[in-house]
Amino acid sequence: MLAEVLVFVPSVSNFRRQWLMERMAAAQIAALAAEAAPGGQLPSTLRNELLEQAKVKAIAVKRADSRILIIEMDMAADIDASYDLRHASWLTLIADALMVYVAPDDRIIRVVGEPGFDEGEFIEVVMGEAPLKAAMIRYGLDILGLSILISIITAALVYLSLDALLVKPMTKLTWNIVRFSERPEDPSRIINPSSRRDEIGTAERELSSMQRELAETLSQKTRLAALGLAVSKISHDLRNMLSSAQLLSDRLITVKDPTVQRLVPKLIASLDRAIRLCARTLDFGQAQEIAPRRQRFELAPLVTEVGDSLGLPRPKLIGWSVDIEEALEVDADRDQLFRVLSNLCRNAVQALESQDEAAGEIVVAARREGSVTVIEVADTGPGVPERARAHLFKAFQSVARKGGTGLGLAIAAELVQAHGGNLTLLDTEGGAIFRVTIPDLVVELDHARRLSA
User: Fold this and answer.
1) Distance between terminal CA atoms of the chain?
2) Is the pLDDT of residue 279 over 80?
3) Contact 109, 127 (CB under 8 A)
4) By three-state DSSP, how is residue 215 classified?
5) Which residues is 66 bridged to in the sheet?
6) What does the pLDDT average to over 23-31?
7) How far is the C-alpha of 196 from the C-alpha of 168, rounded, in Å?
8) pLDDT of 230 higher than 60
9) CATH of domain 291-452
């Protein structure tokens, strides 16, 4: 709109000036004809015809400081406004042009100008403003129609540009999001980003990346759900088999062999632990771990039990060292902490078995740091690859060996977090050191008094 106004106003002003100059040129021609007449007098019929052709009421020519009235109509008219086109500025011309639209139709104006036929000569004409106003209205309407046409063409081009550059790409994005939401597990519904480098192209690439991550996550969740169903079935049958094995192991107590007497309690404890694990279906793929049943107990015997369950030490193959004070206690769920240390030590055993060197060593150390128990499981194996560290504690990201499920570290991290602690991998030159931190349980005094009462 502002652009149209800036175009319309100077155009109308220039049209008015050109129209008046054309009238003055026609008046000057009429004046030359009048001067050429015998005695400078024209018949009234010819005079009126010349004034009609020039569309003026009177014509006066000024030469060499003399002003001569050449032609005028029989009836003199009162002049309502005078305009001098010789020295008028653009602002004056614009203001005069706009005034024409609001002025009365019957105004009589006097116009002074230099048509340019002879140097130093200027001409004055008296004329009615109605023809000028009618011509300017027609010109304004033409400009308006042309502006509307240009606006329509411009609007169509803008619409087509916006439709091609924004609307259609946004419609495509919206359609793809709706389509992907119907079946997010279908990789064929992931958007194929274009090569655009603007915000639309960035949105397409980010949406494609997000959809791929979501599809992979859903695929993994589906596999986990299937695994959980399989584990629940296996757990049911395995619990029955372990119960039978437990009944048979109870009879070994009557055997007098010292070795049997030493191993039977550990065997029964392992079977009891396995049966409880199956009964609760505590597996990563099927069920959430139950809240820890915490109690204070000595840590060294539990670590020794872990080593016995893994057959450690293994002479000339894997060394086994426990650096824990006998009196050191930990506040934790005994069964869950056994599973944490068992998973960490089993991973260490598998790492040592995968290396070419003939022998290696596993060291379990523990200490107290205030109200926190710190346990470190170290091995002299090949260590953890750098590319595996980012997803070390995620399910199905096996690190120690091929064929592993990749659940050991994920389960261990979940159990430690349930205790309010952390499981981290320390940076070392060689081998691997996993650190477990378990803070003591903070018991509110009021709650403790109620329990003791």
Assistant:
1) 86
2) no
3) yes
4) helix
5) 63
6) 78
7) 14
8) yes
9) 3.30.565.10
